[in-house]
Amino acid sequence: MLSLVTLFIGAVLAWLAYRLMRTNKMFELSEKLPGPPCLPLLGNTRDIGALKMNVNNRGKSGLDRIGGRVVLDFLQSLVRLRNKFGSIFRLWLGSELFIFVSDPKYVETILSSSKLLDKGNNYKFLHRWLGAGLLTSSGPTWRKHRKIISPTFHFKILEGCMDVFNANSLKMVQKLQEQESDEEFNINPYVTLCALDIICETAMGVNINAQDGGSADFVQATREMGEAITKRTFQPWLQPDLIFCLSDNGRRQKKSIGILHEMTDKIIKQRKEELADQEKRDMEDQLKQSEDDDDDLCIKKRRAFLDMMLEASKYDEVMSIAELREEVHTFMFEDRVVEELESIFGDSDRDATYRDIQEMKYLELVVKESQRMFPSLPMYVRNIKEDIEMGQKFAMLEMKTVVSKVLRSYKLLPGSTTNKMEELVYNLVLKNVNGARVRLVPRRA
Fold this sequence. Notes:
The chain is mainly α. It starts with a helix and ends with a strand. The longest helix has 29 residues, at 2-30. The strands form 3 sheets. Strands 3-7-4 form a 3-stranded antiparallel beta sheet. It is globular. Helix 7 (162-176) packs parallel to helix 19 (394-409), helix 9 (216-234) packs across helix 11 and helix 11 crosses helix 15. The protein has helices spanning 2-30, 68-85, 104-111, 127-130, 139-149, 155-159, 162-176, 188-204, 216-234, 241-246, 248-276, 283-288, 296-299, 305-315, 321-329, 334-345, 354-359, 361-373, 394-409; strands spanning 88-93, 96-101, 185-186, 410-414, 424-427, 429-432, 437-442. The chain is built from 19 helices and 7 strands. The chain has a domain at 139-332 and 376-380 and 402-440: CATH 1.10.630.10.
């Protein structure tokens, strides 16, 4: 018994020594970078308003959400520190060292590196849901999944998804007809459910009919997962696994994960059985045929991304059911735009084709500029384990198809709260707490 206690104490001391040495080294290196002075234990939490966070704010949806002021205070603190210390500065949040980089050329160096792939520690909160998928994995696992998944984004395969984009966009426009009045409304739920239908049908090959109220438990579980992960990110006392699992948030997350995994596991199993009976459509032959036969990849039949992963996994590096599930989960200037759409479609109500999408040059600029000005993710986090010296197509096709379908049917007038950005909510992605409020004016009587 004494030897076990001695061994345990020795292990703890060794771990503390390692942490101390690592922290001392990082502290010495961090002192070479500009940044505010830090306090023992607390670091620079006072400089970013972390001690004033009202994490128990409840939003209008009835679900626990991070208060709007919290996110805005946090981002404004970073902007203020950048203005004071420059495009590269350091912050200590407790014992964790963060180097904030906003210069585009340095950001490109990090994000384009084939070595700096380790995600930040906060990504671990996604592991119970997404596991080690492309979003959260690093190193060999990331390369393995990337190798298998990359072929599924071949432009011919994306072209085969146009029918899904068009069908769900049309359904959303039909739903919007209910809002044809002078009253403003929040368009976000309509766009969210449309995007969910699209990603489920293209990624998993099934239509969950979220826009018609289908798979309500799956939709609700997805929302609650975002809520739980966001709260855990902003509440340090919930970050240890043991404490989180015993909390109400942990129990709700466990229930949501069960619903999400049950559905995706069922779909994966069903797809594997179907593919086993389709030898004539063997993916190995399709992937290895000559470039002259490349068009056959999607002209004969649109294949779900899940089917592609299953077949690629069959003949390459094997991906387990859990790994497949992780990747499935891991996949949201008006007059000038309308003029461009009219030049392409005229008075026709026909569906958009892949060629039409390629012609939407100005709409693509609008989408890209909107993403630049209002990014859904305000920052990326990478865990750098070596010294460095510093001196996506599917989403675009989907967005251009959906936006073009809406703008061909309606003029979107801004609501009274459109410019009120003082209240933001962070639920995996950054949003206005009031949503995107608009009024619809039909273009054709």
